[in-house]
Structure formats: structure tokens, C-alpha cells
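Fig. S4 source data, part A: sequence.
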Amino acid sequence: MKLSEQLRADREKLRKLPDRSSRLRFIWDYYKYPLLFVSTVLVILLVSFISNLGKADINLYVVLLNNDSPVVECDESVFNDTMSRAGIDMKGKRVDVNKDLSLGMGTNEAADMETLQVLTALFSISDLDVYVAPKQYFDYFVQENGFADLNRLIDRDILDRYPDDLYGRSDANGNLYVDGIILHKGSPLHKAGYYHDDVVIGVVNNAYHFDEAITFLKQLLRDRN
């Protein structure tokens, strides 16, 4: 059946349904996959548009998933201060920190799905530089190969200070691929109030500000206790 004929037949079926509820159910049953595809594309476009506003002033974009800022007063200066200590001139620049995303914090599955769509979009369109999350939500993007190998990018003398905190996997040749670094109580982000439990921090593979992200992470590790 041609597409035009199929649409005509569907409209006729829809017209004969008795109430609004059955019509909505019909539309969802027949068109849920196209609708989900279109909604995902719209989310990606919206996130891209919003995240590009004022990008000229941003030299790092960080997502802090499931952070404590809704219930604790946090020291936002930790990001600019860390960049400055790393030798980056912050005049006219800023670190854009997204503190509003959360997963698994309640029973709202629809909200979690929306958050996953937003995060997937951010990883896909190269706007996200640094991602911080509890292990289970960091792992989601490890499986998607979302992170740069810190074993090749962070100085050996820095990594050797934290051999038990390297978060990664071994390749077929037994070489360690470090997706992230575990941060414990005492890290600058914990001291600033953003977290109380362990989290993992990583640099996104296709980060827009890749060099700045690596520099930020190096300095953060130098500053931790």
C-alpha cells in the first residue's frame, strides 16, 4: 500500500474511534517509533541551540550529574579558580556548569528518559567537555565509548599518585584504557559541596574544549587531598 493510501486509511480508522483516549492510543500504537525519533532529533537540536548561546565566552562545559547543589550551598568559584591555577587566562571567559540534571533520584521514569536523551545529545554534538557522575551513570557512556583515554593524556606522575582510582577497562592486549578518575571526599568538588559520595570524572571523547578539559582535570587531580 502506498504511503498516501496508508495515511488515508489511518485517518478513517481514527475518525471512527469513539473517544479522545482511544484516538491517542491508536496514534501511539501506530506512530510511536517515528514520534520518538522526531522527539529525539528535536531534543538534540534544542540542546545544540541552547548550548551554543554565548559559546564564545565559554572555555569549558561541565555536567555534574546528581550533585548536591539543590540542598547544599556550593562554592561555584572552584571551576574558575582551578582553571586559573592551571595557567589558563579566564579574563572574559567562564566555565559553564550544568547542575540541573539527575538520574534515578525518584520514581519518574519519564523524567529519567528525558535526562538520558539530553545527555546523549550532549555527548553526540561535541558540546560537553567534562562529565561527573556516580559510577552507575558514568558506566552508561563508558559502554558507548564516550570518554577519552586518560592513560595517554594525563601525566604519568599524576596518575601514579592514584593507582586505585583509575576507572577503566583493559583492551584485547591487556593495556589499561582509563575512562575516568574516581573522586573521593577531599577532592575539590567535594570540598566545594557538590558531592558527598564517590563520583567518577571523565573527559568526553569529542569535547569541544578538549585541551582545556584535560588541563582542568590535571589541575583538579593536583589539588585533591
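Fig. S4 source data, part B ends here. The mean pLDDT is 83.
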